[in-house]
Amino acid sequence: MSFFKDRNCYMKDYNLSLIDKIRGFNYLYLFLISLIVFIGIAVLYSVGSSPSVGSTPSDPWKWASKQSIRFIISLWILLVIAMTNLRLWMKYAYWLYGAGLLLLIGVELLGHIHMGAQRWLSFGLFQLQPSEVMKIALVLALAKYFHGASLEQIRSVKFMIPPVLMMGIPVLLILKQPDLGTAMMLVFMSFGVFFLVGVQVWKFIALALVGIGSFPIIWSLLIPYQKKRVLTFLNPENDPLGAGYHISQSKITLGSGGFWGKGFMQGTQKRLKFIPEDHTDFIFTVFAEEFGLFGSLILFLLYTLVIGYGFLISARCQNSFGKIVAAGLTINFALYLFINSGMVMGLMPVVGVPLPLMSYGGTAMITLFISFGLMECVDINREMVIGRLGSIDDE
Description:
The protein is built from 17 helices and 5 strands. The chain has helices at residues 18-24, 27-48, 61-82, 86-91, 93-110, 130-146, 151-154, 157-175, 180-197, 201-213, 215-221, 224-234, 245-256, 268-271, 283-316, 320-344, 362-380; strands spanning 9-11, 112-114, 117-122, 127-128, 386-388. A hairpin with a 4-residue loop joins strand 3 and strand 4. The longest helix is centred in the last third of the chain and has 34 residues, at 283-316.
């Protein structure tokens, strides 16, 4: 089965009733996702139970309650998106990408500054991180662009200029914020899509060389604390009580859990506040200390199943737009896991990428569930066939 047909194509009239969509819903996929969220809420409860600094009493529900509410809201968003028609997402893909770019430009002009970074837009009751929205918008735009393209077109350098620009413009805007982690995710996610659609390896090498050549520019866009993080990654022992503190304490905590762990809510490193950002970027270290290597392997198995299901949804979809959307969003989810786990183990620089579905955070949770809603939408509409103009060809 090929990803592609001619670009001059259309979607066969394919409408499912609400009952058909409910029957076609992938409940096991949702169960796996929800199970990871519940584990994350339990860990956040454990984090909140630790004694607070000063005289303020601990509050086990400090993080867990808000995350639970976000999960319920996100779940409804997933269900609504899953019931939509896939054609709508293809029709408005470029519009959504354009809206994402406007939001990124809005961050540059009106963004909220926090800890030296300008990444959020404030809308009164909530704050939005447009770079998270762009992850979804970019996948949809690339899927629409490559939908129906022939292999000959994809191997044309001229044909590849627009998708490279689609990737490059938001990456530069995000680096300007600065947000190295999200910029890395957009690049690798786009490369993953390019590879799946059939772009030759030599083009990846050429792009990599361009990236290496532009490193001085990228380095100049980073603020001092981010540069320090990269240098610390190269030699964390150089400043164990300063810039290397995060990585050093993370490694100590990971090792202290042993094979079986210390038990739920029994983590000493967490209780003594040695773990930095224990409810966000470094939540995995809390989990590993309490549930050990055994629990960590079970958790990674759950993540692997979610990723595997994502690629299965892509593989069995009969239209190229849905295939690319499912594959791109799955790659994005896998990158969350790969970068965060590498970061807390000291295998990658600390770049502020959360552990998906477990780290505390609103925008990341909602955008991930939008992604899962789109995945379910693709799966429900997997038999929607794309054919050549004037015929209905099975792919």
